[in-house]
Amino acid sequence: MIDDLVSFQNTKCDCGHQNPVGTVLCEACGKPLAEEDLKSQEVLEMRYDGMARRSQRSNPNIIDRIWNFFSSVKIAVYMIIFTLVGSMLGSIFPQESTFLNIDPSTYYPDTYGTAGIIYYKLGLSHTYESWWFVSLLVMIGASLVICSLDRVLPLYKALSKQKIRKHIQFLTRQKVVLQTPIEGDPEAWVQNVVAPLKKRGYRVHTEGSALLAEKYRFSRWGPYVLHIGLIIFLLAVLARGLPGLHMDQHMAFPEGEIKHITNTSLYLKNEKFIVEYYTEDDLPDEFKGKGKILPKLFQTQAVLYECTSECNDVTKEPVLKEVERHNIQVNDALNYKGLKAYQFDYDVTPILRSITPTLIDKTTGKEYGNFKLDIKNPERKYEVGDYTLELKEKYMDFGLNDQGVPVTLSPDPKAPAFLFLIKGPGLPTEGVQYFYFPKQIDKERFQQNQINTKLGGQNYSFELDVKGMENVDFAMSTSYLNIRVDKAMPFIWVGAAIVMLGLVMGFYWQHRRIWLRIDDGLLTLGAHTNKNWFGIRREVCTVLQKVNLEVDEKSLENGGNQA
Asked: Are 176 and 533 in contact (CB under 8 A)?
């Protein structure tokens, strides 16, 4: 209680104004409050006009300590340095997100050796999505907010409540100072200097024989406008990690298929894919006679659908409504409500879409019937004559792991395989397992007959066979599209524009203030600016010349006297 009273008494100025604890210069008259400052003749620190800041509290609590940590410019610089170092480390090798369909655990060691192993193990292969990098960005954002609030509020208070008549010591300890005797009526002299100041763009306020002239105050808010822009920019960058705000994926669309775009209610159909090649005569000279085949045009005739019902029910077909049609070419994307589909690549290798095999008894040659097997979306059960085929497992890209267990190597139907359980007359009650590879090359490569001999034993007498190419449906080409959604990008541009506005405000204008007072025929003038001291000195001399007072510019430097 006693300490509070002492602080209360120590911050009261001679002019009668009670200042908050931590105030360096009186908010009313500008007189230095500390005893050591009263005795000093050094130029005053005018960064916040001597106003108290929260980060300068003498007895901070836990919240104040957190506030002080984030309001420190030194800490902010360290965080920026750490972020820059992290960004540099993340750019040593390509990030995982720049590749398509790779296994990073094998790619980095195979490509970069020991350095790649270390790079991957340290998690630097996904630096920009890592928790520590995102945490640094969040901390920089918090520092920007707290630094700005800690400084802008005192500055606003100081500039919005400026007093016209300032203490003599406040004026004589500015960097630009003039003290000289004048003749005549003080108030009339002050009124005579108003017009030249206004002509120079100053807003002038007078109080008897005292004057305050000010211009370009808005430039003081430049750094804080820049901070606002950076905060919006950082928030927008971080928001890209939220579901629905950002997507950047590459998807394959076989010709004639409707495919769901993940994390959306949209479906896209590659209705037809067109590719045209340069003729030998049209080829550039450097490619002629070299057997080069260069695409002249590749285009996806795309139809975009939106799901209207049964969207999340995997047991039912979704109800789709056409919302957009566009012929997608390079640099000519399909655009619908922020979703863009860019032509990325293509493949004219036919892809097996469906097949209609016939169930045959190998020993007698008897055919029991056929069924249509959709490669990507097969049914769980098929009735073929007196027999039932239950689908137990599906492998889009069949392979074996290190333990010899069947696995799917990728989601693309490169080597499709199906494990059926056949039940019916002449078979055990539990049925017989049967492995089926639709492609002949896969049957031979993975030895389908040997697998089924082991699975079925003496009951292995059935076979699935395709009778003619009319029972095979191919997608003749595949279009690869880059699907992008970036709803945060407009905010990134807004943040960048605000940053530029703040830079322009701070660099191209300077906040200038001129105070003067006349006491018993003695003119005392002090001037301050946040940059370009030579400019304000020259401006003060020009204004004084208009009232017939010749002054040498150099004599105004920090307490120069004009006799």
From this structure: yes
